[in-house]
Design a protein that fits this description.
It is built from 38 helices and 19 strands. The chain has 827 residues and is α/β, with parallel strands linked by helices. This is Sigma-54 factor interaction domain-containing protein.
Amino acid sequence: MIIDYLDWHYLSIWPKLFILWGNLTLFPVFYFSIPLHLKTLFAPWKRQRIAMKPGFNIGDVLNVLGFNLISRSLSIIIKLITILYGLLFVPVGFILGFFLAISWGLLPLFTFPFFRSRIQTNHEKALKLLQKVRKQGGDMRVLLMAFLNDDEGKFISQRLGFDLKKITKQVKDIKESSRYSLFEDKIKLGEKTLNLSDLFITSTSTYPVIKDIFEKNNIKCDDIYQTALWFEKLQEKQDPPVLFSFSKIRALPGIGIDWSYGYTVQMDRFASELTKKPSPFPFLVGREKEITGIERVLVKTEANNVLLIGDPGVGRHILLETLAHRIAVGYAPHSLSHKRIIMLNMHALASEKPSVLEIKGLASAIFEEAENAGNVIIVIDEIDKYVSTGVGRLDLSDVLLKFAQSSIGFIAITEPDLYHKFIEQNSNLAKLFTNINLSPPSQEVLLLELELSIVPVLERKYKVLFGLPAIYKAVEDAQRFISTTPFPGKAIELLDGVAVFTASEKKSNLITPEFVEEFLTNKLHIPIGKLKGEEKEKLIHLEDLLHKRVINQEPAIRILASSMRRSRLDITSSKKPIGSFLFLGPTGVGKTETAKALAEIYYGSEDLMLRFDMSQYQHEEGITRLIGSIKLGIPGELTSKIRQQPFSLVLLDEFEKADPEIYNLFLTLFDEGYISDAFGKKADGKNAIFIATSNAGAEFLREKINQGVADEQLQKELIEYVQTERIFSPELLNRFDGVVVFTPLSEGHLREVAKIMLAQLDNKLKKQEIQVAVTTELIKKLANIGFDPQWGARAIKRVISERIEDQVAKRLLEGNVKKGEMIEIEI
């Protein structure tokens, strides 16, 4: 105890007091801005000075001399007074710091109460606890009880949602101690860097009974360990107090900081100062390389302009807020101290004046103010809009070109495709900026960002607690189900939404993985997570549900249903789409109807089916229509719709009529689950079902059926036929999860189709409170009249429309139908 106390007193605290002594001495120096005032002592007040006009005029000369003399004199007088006041306080700080440091060194015994009540480091707690366990003869109950009742243990229990009292009671009943020697051997290997989390994970690996206790309570020991590491990382991240940090003292917003910098009256009307605005996420983790790169450019005296290039959601604005925070607290290079990061509202600026010429004049005036101020860094969001022409764009490139060569320092923000389209081509402007490319963080960095930067802020904001499994689940589901935004944006968006959902709807303060799943299910209108009763029944009986609308075609229905079940239970690859199928068969046999039925059953509505008539996509123009064009500046129809409705069934109708070059677009989509547009952006198709329909080989199919070829052999021969005829390549066919042959419908099948169609008509007539009398005779006549081997069930639909729907419409118009009446149809 004595040795520990002396180590703490002289080796831990005393050196810090010498740092405090120095900082107390220097505090008045920077609080009164003495270095800055000495450096700018003879500079004009607020940089206010006037220059001589062309030509010689004695009045003008006297006016200029008088104004500039007053400006400099005012600056000298006020700054000298401030410097003197600051110097008066320097001895006070010196004496106070000296007294504290010397007293602490000479009076050790008086500090013993502080030693007893100090906040121990995690390492100190771990060593102390280990000594206690050793004294108790290896009693692991002592270790676990202390761990669970420490602040770290409470943090873990709160975020994993287990009953601390219940677990503590079960721990007390542990009797096994024969494995202590194994525990001791493992601990000795890392005793110099030991933490409480190390003690816990070692105890669970050497004492299975401890692991059993937690697992019986549905708690994974790895979750406890990872949550403990999270707690320890949060503790390490805490900032030192101002008086113990010279960099923070040096960055203090001291007295008279703004005296040395010019007025920015016009600019302030359109500006938001990030260095004064508290950032919601001030400590961005894992972006040190990018932040350092920005700082290196900004400290230069020329060409000190940065262009941040990244997709929305990748963290462009959070990065700037972190940079502003670093400057404000003194973590940035000293030459950036007292710099103002100004976000310019370019939309408001452009709306201020009616003509482009006047807008350019206003922009020039603002930039001149910023240059004269001497401490301004201007941020322009979506800069591509202000260096190009077109709808919604304003070309101010000549103004920016002029001032980008000044001392201001610009930080511009744009997206990769917009950079290539609008900025890269302007070589004069592009060469004045240093590009900083932002890409989504790695999984490891992302989790670190969320744990240390994002989640603590969300917890304070919504008064909830995030369990670590919920954070992992949010990252996993964001990766799988959110494709329009990159990380970390989509993870932050999801966590924010789940926090609101948990606090407002679930009335809970602990966010669990189940809440993440429930929130996403409600938001996306698709089932996520564990199967529930209704959905389970739907998947089990999917074949029966599809056959309510589709007659015959058992092989197709069986393949579809099997694929859907595997996908929902995450048995198939998560990279590929839910399913991709090629339906081969003649017209009117149920290919499109099967797709519609599946969209309604799985996604809840036929409206969630995206239909593309592939005969309209030919040659290079067809490719442009599907994936867009950089040259024309238009988005792709296929890629845009997949992004807008990622949870949908995509029907590629008459697939064989598309240009062969277009087939190549679908190879990656069917295999990897994404398609890249002309701008290089990926459209995610992992949550979609793709069904391509084709009449290819219809006549060949009829011939083989007439020859009595069995179903399995029929499918094999038809696939060989479309390959031999070079309709579809083997490479393309192999990308489909299933190539399904739809066989022609017999007259008996058409009767069943007629029943379904008449039932659908009755459903439409419910609003009129009438029905059509469906008789056996009516169905036979429909099947007989509508039997057409070439058009299949489509002929039946046409007959119903012409012979039945027309009769019903006439009777309704004549007013001869009463509510509740059963209309008898004669054809």
